[in-house]
Amino acid sequence: MDVLADLLGRARASGALFARTDLHGAGGIVLPATAPLSLHVVSRGRLHLVAEEAVTCLEEGDVVLVRQPTVVSLLAAEREPAEPLAALLARPGAPPPGPGVRHLVLPGQGPPATLLCGAYALAGSVCDRLLVALPPVVHVRAEGRLGRVVQLLVEELDADEPGQQTALDRLLDLLLVHVLRAHFAERPAPRWYAGMADPVVGRALRAVHADPARAWTVEGLARLAGLSRAAFARRFTALVGEPPLAYVTGWRMALAQDALRREGSTLAAVAREVGYGSEFALSAAFTRHVGEPPSRWRAKARAAG
User: Fold this and answer.
1) Are 42 and 145 found together in one domain?
2) What global pTM score does this model have?
3) Where are the alpha helices (DSSP H) in 161-243?
4) Are the beta carbons of 11 and 127 closer than 8 angstroms?
5) pLDDT, tens digit, 9 for 90 and up, residues 62-105
6) How many CB atoms lie within 10 A of CB 36?
7) Which range of residues forms the domain containing residue 206?
8) Which candidate, 251, 212, 22, 30, places its Cα nearest to that of 115?
9) Sign (positive or negative) of CA dihedral 137, 138, 140, 142
10) Which of 43, 121, 130, 135 sits 20 to 30 Å CA-CA off 258?
């Protein structure tokens, strides 16, 4: 399993919220920063995106990925007024809350544009590793396979057939994968992503993510990668930005934090899950890495919601 697949597998959409907004040459919509990740597709026409005082012209087929806590406005024209999403949904005749696709219409006399939006509800330390690797706004052009995914999403939103929510969830996952690939191909990628492209380091990273509880050593990872211990450690550190066992520990601690959030989890079970032989061993490693014992960290995390 590669790093991106592991992160996205844990960030998988389930019951994601979808909306379709038709703008007819006037007005705009202000999207709140409530979802950790949201994807927005211009399926028809042209729109203007305003984020952090920057204006970007979006053409038909463009895809935008927005990371919390960024507030964005999508306008029919650059200087059009925008209305918060909550206010639009409170208007008489607006679609009621609940499952399914919410369809909004902003009337006007200008050229029509259609915006499709899907939002993820991510939580946990593992997902944070993906979020911190992204800028507030990612803008990519839907070409090639990404363009075909966008077309499938458009068709599914229009279909309103049985199983639509499941189909939309999986299409949103697929859209996110291709947007991230396109973005990291053109911009500086996180170092763990760059490491995956290396035939030696990528082999070690896949092994760690496939079996994080295994008693990994630098020697064992080096043998798996086909290099000497010293050569492997240098290459891994240069590409990933930290030594091999520091990466293993950091990944285990992220997994442990998410496991500790689960109802009914015990320290002994979490210790076994992430590769520590006892509660004491996990507590010692967790305290060194996080700065407080797992029991105290869990109480704070659960109190925070």
Assistant:
1) yes
2) 0.80
3) 164-186, 191-196, 201-210, 218-225, 229-240
4) yes
5) 999 998 888 889 888 877 788 888 888 778 777 666 556 777 88
6) 19
7) 194-303
8) 22
9) negative
10) 135
Q: Is residue 10 part of a domain?
A: no
Mark whether 166 and 232 lie in a shared domain: no
Look at residues 142, 160, 186 and tell me which one is the last residue of a structural domain: 186
Residue with tokens 């763990």: 192
Rounded CA separation 176/167 (Å): 14
User: pLDDT by residue (tens digit) across 95-112?
Assistant: 666 556 777 888 878 888
Give CA–CA dist 77/109, Å, rounded: 12
The DSSP output letter for 304 is T
| Statement to judge: residues 297 and 214 lie in one domain | yes
Q: Could you tell me the CA-to-CA distances from 7 to 79, 124, 131, 212, 287 in Å, in that order?
A: 39, 11, 10, 13, 24
Helix axis angle, 164-186 relative to 144-159, nearest 10°?
A: 160
Q: Are 253 and 289 in contact (CB under 8 A)?
A: yes
How many domains does one find in the chain? Answer: 2
Match 């010692």 to its residue by tokens. Answer: 284
Condensed to tens digits (0 to 9), the pLDDT of residues 160-218 reads: 788 888 888 888 888 888 898 888 888 777 888 888 889 999 999 999 998 999 999 99
